[in-house]
Write a structure and sequence with these properties.
This protein has about 375 residues and is an alpha/beta fold. The longest helix is centred in the N-terminal third of the chain and has 17 residues. The chain is built from 11 helices and 14 strands. Helices cover about 30% and strands about 15% of the residues. It has a single domain, classed as TIM Barrel (Alpha-Beta Barrel), CATH 3.20.20.140. Strand 8, helix 5 and strand 9 form a beta-alpha-beta unit. The strands form 4 sheets. It has a 5-stranded parallel β-sheet. Strands 3-12-13-14 form a 4-stranded antiparallel β-sheet, with no helix packed on it. Helix 5 packs parallel to helix 6 and helix 10 crosses helix 11.
């Protein structure tokens, strides 16, 4: 039994006194869980439009409308909290203004910040043509001094909990996926400046050397980690850096017709690395988070990541803890979400059975409560 008062959990136990006039929801034999958390999403993106088209054709108002739609679908799938990573430049203002917990029609949102990359990085429109520029995208920075200035400007303007940098060579035309975009001292500059603001850095890191550089620099999270090797795993286990794999996309990108052929080839290289024997002996690193990189897979299918990880050998309990308590710790939100305890937000989901016996039940969430408000209920006994 869980007793709520407004948007908070106030009591949890096997048998609780029911206050007079309280509304009672009996979910029967369902399993009640904390709301799931996805640590790497792109809520403003549509799954049927490739990011290159988004960069060149999408307006902030379009992104805001699609973001609201995608957030609602994500919420109804049981993901009550998301960290949004590197939205296209013009949509950053929307991401910053995304409703908080007090407006629970969408997931609670931790802004991932603008993705900062060097000239020639994945957000640089000049990779399409030397004569093409996107004035609204101001996320390029080269050298430690420029990076410090860019990070400071971003944090001052938007006050995000995480700053974003990376080695997204997998998404850059002509670049091999293992290529490191930023030099070690450049990543360190971003981490040092973010720390001065009381913030942390998330690194999009696919290539092996980029992963190791990010760990050495002290980033909070290494996202993707496609070409993680044994040395990087050992480094992660000793460092205060969390591993944020997005493993299920390895099953999606190579066959996605919306992705250009050149990128599918690079994605195939990352997929091969992700499915190598050294990666499929779970856990590849510890501790690890739960993340998806939607809309590489469609919005609302986020829980497929849990199912896929269990198929690789992770225990169902470990996958569930990654999607809840561990992700809350990474966000610095352990006092708000991640467990069903007094004082936490009333963000609750339920599945029709025991997910420890069948993790695919997380793909069939039948009850969703956000901040004490029920948004989906297929399980309450009438």
């Amino acid at each position: 039994m869980v007793r709520l008062d407004g948007d908070r959990i106030v009591e949890v136990g096997e048998r609780l006194a029911i206050p007079p006039g309280a509304r009672v929801l009996d979910l029967g034999a369902a399993t009640l869980l904390p709301g799931f958390i996805d640590l790497h999403t792109h809520l403003t993106d549509k799954e049927d439009i490739h990011w290159e088209e988004v960069l060149l054709k999408t307006t902030p108002s379009q992104a805001a409308l699609w973001g609201a739609r995608n957030a609602r679908i994500t919420l109804e799938a049981g993901f009550t909290t998301c960290r949004d990573m590197d939205p296209p430049g013009p949509t950053s203002t929307w991401t910053c203004a995304m409703p908080s917990h007090r407006e629970p029609s969408r997931p609670a949102h931790a802004g991932g910040g603008q993705l900062h990359l060097p000239d020639g990085g994945s957000g640089d429109a000049r990779q399409f043509s030397l004569f093409v520029d996107v004035p609204m995208v101001r996320n390029l920075a080269d050298g430690p001094e420029e990076i410090v200035k860019a990070v400071a400007h971003e944090l001052q303007a938007r006050s995000r909990p995480h700053q974003d940098t990376g080695d997204r060579s997998d998404a850059v035309q002509g670049n091999p996926p293992e290529q490191q975009s930023y030099a070690d001292e450049e990543i360190k500059a971003a981490v040092t400046e973010a720390k001065r603001w009381g913030r942390t850095v998330a690194a999009h890191a696919h290539g092996t050397e980029g992963i190791k550089a990010a760990i050495r620099a002290g980033v909070r999270t290494v996202d993707h980690g496609s070409m993680l090797d044994a040395e990087a795993i050992a480094m992660l286990k000793k460092a205060p850096t969390y591993y944020v794999p997005t493993l299920y996309i390895s099953q999606v990108v190579p066959d996605n017709p919306k992705v250009p052929e050149s990128e599918r080839e690079r994605g195939g290289g990352c997929a091969t690395a992700s499915s190598s024997p050294s990666r499929t002996r779970w856990p590849p690193a510890s501790p690890s988070a739960l993340a998806t990189d939607v809309p590489v897979m469609p919005h609302g299918q986020n829980a497929k990541e849990m199912t896929f990880r269990v198929s690789l050998g992770e225990s169902p309990m470990s996958a569930l803890v990654s999607a809840t308590r561990v992700n809350a710790e990474i966000l610095g939100w352990s006092d708000r979400v991640g467990t069903v305890e007094p004082g936490k937000w009333a963000d609750l989901v339920a599945v029709p059975g025991d997910p420890l016996q069948d993790i695919t039940l997380t793909e069939r969430v039948g009850f969703v409560m956000k901040g004490g408000v029920v948004f989906k209920d297929e399980l309450t006994r009438r």
